[in-house]
Design brief:
It is a single chain. By secondary structure, the chain is α+β, with helices and mostly antiparallel strands. The chain contains four helices and four strands. Strands 1-2-4-3 form a four-stranded antiparallel sheet. Helix 2 crosses helix 4. The N and C termini lie far apart (33 Å).
Length: 131
């Protein structure tokens, strides 16, 4: 049976209850790791400086508390240069979210049109509740 690591559990607890429920359901079927939930101002600005986020504080969905966004990857973590495992995982997560009535935006398809080629900034681990 899959279980959260201490780090994943801590990060997930900083998220909106809908995300907690969703990713607990995902974990029942697919082992995964929560990389990040809530980000404070210092962390958000670091992510922008590293090119891992495009939004300054406090505009990211990670910046609210509880966080309206979560970064989650399949476990074990695939090669970061191979997009396919992240895409397959994201489609699974989006399917579970749909079953739960949770509207998500995924960082591999920001406009949620199922066309991944029109994405200008890929953030495959990123999932956020739609506004």
């Amino acid at each position: 049976m899959n279980a959260w690591s201490d780090k994943s559990w801590y990060q997930l607890q900083t998220c909106d209850p809908k995300l907690i429920l969703l990713f607990n359901s995902v974990l029942l079927v697919r082992d995964c790791s929560i990389l990040e939930g809530h980000r404070d101002e210092e962390r958000q600005q670091k992510m922008v400086a590293e090119g891992k986020s495009k939004l300054d504080w406090p505009k990211s969905r990670h910046n609210s508390f509880p966080s309206m966004a979560v970064d989650c990857v399949p476990y074990p973590v695939p090669d970061w240069d191979e997009s396919e495992p992240f895409i397959r995982f994201a489609h699974f997560v989006l399917g579970v979210a749909h079953q739960q009535g949770v509207l998500l935006t995924w960082g591999g398809d920001w406009d949620s049109d199922w066309d991944l080629k029109d994405n200008r900034f890929n953030d495959y681990p990123h999932f956020e509740l739609r506004r």
